[in-house]
Amino acid sequence: MAKKEELKDTLKEETTGKETGTEETAAATVPDETKQDQETSKPKKRKFVAVQDFKDLQDNGKVYLKGDSFPKPVNKNVSDERLQELLTAVNNQNRSVIKEVE
Q: pLDDT: is 13 or 58 the higher one?
């Protein structure tokens, strides 16, 4: 019965952030692990640039000139399906009109 009480106290100390003995190490690593999990769970924002002049017929005829960033504005969400269409020749121009940049 005493072991249960010790375990409860240990868990209580770890969750409240009290730093004693080995709990200090455990409490110190939890935020780092959480930070790493958050960084890996965030999808990286992909960047694209126009490699050909084109008019985006699915975005009110917005015109992109070679070298322009895609999409305009840069923070606009574009579906993966639409990106694949523009990255490949499966579109009205039958050629790739954008490319991904690092």
A: 58
CA nearest 100: which of 85, 81, 87?
87
**Peptide bond just before 71 cis, omega within 30 deg:** yes
Structure tokens at 20: 């004693």
d(CA 79, CA 76): 10
| Structure confidence at residue 46 (pLDDT) | 87
| Cα 91-95-98 angle, rounded to 5 deg | 90
First to last CA, the chain: 59
Residue type, 81: E
Give residue 8's pLDDT.
72
> Residues near 28 by Cβ (< 8 Å), separated by ≥ 6?
19
Question: Model-level pTM?
Answer: 0.56
Contact residues for 23 (Cβ-Cβ < 8 A; gap 6+):
10, 13, 14
Q: What are phi and psi for residue 44, nearest 5 degrees?
A: -70, 140
